[in-house]
What we know:
Residues 1-59 form the HTH lysR-type domain. Pfam families: HTH_1 (PF00126), LysR_substrate (PF03466). It comes from Ramlibacter cellulosilyticus. One of its GO terms (molecular function) is DNA binding. By secondary structure, this protein is of the alpha/beta class. It has two domains: 3-87, Arc Repressor Mutant, subunit A (Orthogonal Bundle), CATH 1.10.10.10; 91-307, D-Maltodextrin-Binding Protein, domain 2 (3-Layer(aba) Sandwich). The chain is 43% helix and 25% strand. It is built from nine helices and twelve strands. A six-stranded mixed sheet has the order 4-3-5-12-6-11, sandwiched between helices. It has a two-stranded antiparallel ribbon with strand order 1-2. Strands 7-10 form a two-stranded parallel sheet. Strand 3 (92-98), helix 5 and strand 4 form a beta-alpha-beta unit. Helix 1 crosses helix 3 (30-44) and helix 8 (245-254) packs across helix 9. It is elongated, with a radius of gyration of 29 Å. The mean pLDDT is 87.
Amino acid sequence: MDRLQSMRVFQEVVDEGGFAAAARKLELTPAAVTRLVSDLEKHLGVRLLQRTTRRLSLTPAGEAYLGRLRGILTDIDEADAVVQAQSREMSGTVRVLAQPVVATHIIAPAIADFQRLHPDVHLELHVHDVVDPNVEDYDLTIVNGAVPLVASAIVRTVIESQAVFCASPAYLQRHGEPKHPQDLREHRCLRLRAEGTRLRAMTLIDPSNDDRRIEVDVPAVVTANHTDSLMRATISGAGIGIQPADLIAPMLKAGVLQRVLAPWITGRIRLVAALPSRKFMPARTRAFLDFLVEYTRNAMAGLEEGR
Length: 307
C-alpha cells in the first residue's frame, strides 16, 4: 500500500463529498479510490467513513484522523515546495523594510556582493524609522531587537552586538584617550537622547568581569535622537560617541574610528529579521537573509581577529 497516496485520496474523498468526485479530481478510477481508502482503513484497523447509498460521513475516528492528516499533508507539500524552490533559478524581488541606520551600514554595503552571486534578484529597500512595523507587507523586516513585533512574525537573529565607546584618531590626538570610565567626565561626549527625555547617569558594563556595572554622570556636548548623525559627528572629531560595534566595524578596521575604554560597554544590541507568519519563504528571500547574516558576522569576526 502506498500509504501517502491513500492518505491524500482519503482527504479528497471527504473534501469532494464522495468517491466518484474524488476519482475525477485525482484522475483515478472510482474502483482505485475505493481500494485505497479501504487499504488505509485496514492498515489503521478502524473504519474512517460511514457509507450509505445516499450519503458519506466521517466516523469519530475518521474525523480525528482527518484533523491530524491535513496538517501532515500540508507540511509535506510545503517541504516539497522549499526543495523545489531551491532548485529553480534565483530571480524575482525581495521587499525589505529597514531602519535608516541598518539600511545604511548593514544592508547597503552587502548589496554588491549579494548581486554578484544572484544578479537576477532585485532588492526593493524601504527605509523608515519604524516604531510598529507591518511585517506582513514585506518579505523581510530588519530592525533593532528592541522594536516590538507582532506575535505571529517569524524572527531570526542577524547579529548580536554591543554598544561601545569610540572616537576619531584626530580627537584622541587633541584630547588624549580615556583610561577609566570616570575620565569621561573630562571629555567631549556625544549621546543619544530620545525626544521628550532627559539625559541620565550612564551605566557602564564590564563583560570581562561578570558584567560589573558602574554609573557615571557623563556630560554631553552634543545630543541627538539619530544614531547616524552622532556617528558622523564622531568621525569628524567632535568627541567620544557610543555606537553598535557591528555598525562601526568597517570604520574601526579602516582606522577611521578607534575604540576606547575597552572592554567597557553601555549595553547589548540584537539585530533581527522578521518574516510574515508562513512556514517557508521563497528561495530568493532565504538566500538574501542567509547572505546578510553571514556577511555581517564575517565583518564582525574580521574585526575581532584584527584586534
